[in-house]
Amino acid sequence: MILPIIAYGDPVLRKKAKVISADYPNFDTLIANMYETMYNAYGVGLAAPQIGLPIRVFLVDTSPFAEDEGLTDEERSQLKDFKQTFINAKILDETGDEWAFNEGCLSIPHIREDVFRQPTIKIEFQDENFKTHIKEFDGLLARVIQHEYDHIEGVLFTDKISALKKRLIKGKLSNISKGKISIDYKMRFPDMKKKR
């Protein structure tokens, strides 16, 4: 089932998400719905707060990125088949020199800005079977994971841009929170009268 994506301005996007256990109700259905919702909106990542649930769950499928021009063969093969559900994730380490990449977000449509992040992460997480893993990721893959991880920490990519850029997009952010936006996927806006 395709769920509405929560728009910028909703308080759930600012909550630090809670750890869950393997007995979380209807978990398999939730994960299936999240993947369907993400694909319907042409996303490469989706976090539970973006569908209104303040729990530490996010998913990533970077296969659409593999088609981008300008990637090396190594980057393309890294992104092409990567699909992972992250539960109760905790970034243990971020290393390397920060680099900029133009990011967007399904909860903040039509806004893209350069965000600086470190290129390599070490992350501990559980998969959809609640088996624990510790893995390292780098490059674009690490960036997508960092972006989704921020969601379960109550952080948005717009928090990481300069004060000047924040002022320049303030009106657009306000319009998103009021539902004054044209978008081709289902969203829920803070003003509940505005539904699409």
UniProtKB/TrEMBL annotation:
Summarizing the function annotation, the protein's role is: Removes the formyl group from the N-terminal Met of newly synthesized proteins. Requires at least a dipeptide for an efficient rate of reaction. N-terminal L-methionine is a prerequisite for activity but the enzyme has broad specificity at other positions.
Binding of Fe cation occurs at: C105, H147, H151
One Gene Ontology molecular-function label: peptide deformylase activity
Name the Enzyme Commission number(s) assigned to this protein: 3.5.1.88
Q: Which UniProt keywords apply?
A: Hydrolase, Iron, Metal-binding, Protein biosynthesis
> Which reaction does this enzyme catalyse, per its entry?
N-terminal N-formyl-L-methionyl-[peptide] + H2O = N-terminal L-methionyl-[peptide] + formate
Q: What is this protein called?
A: Peptide deformylase
Task: Write out the catalytic residues in the record.
Answer: E148
Q: Which InterPro entries match?
A: Peptide_deformylase, Peptide_deformylase_sf
Pfam families registered for this protein in UniProt: Pep_deformylase
Write out the similarity annotation.
Belongs to the polypeptide deformylase family.
Write down the required cofactor(s): Fe(2+)
**GO terms for biological process?**
translation
Q: How is the cofactor bound, as the UniProt entry phrases it?
A: Binds 1 Fe(2+) ion.
* Species assigned in the record: Pontimicrobium aquaticum
Which SUPFAM superfamilies is this protein grouped with? Peptide deformylase (SSF56420)
Asked if the record carries the keyword Hydrolase, the reply is yes
EC category name: hydrolase
Q: Where is the signal peptide?
A: none
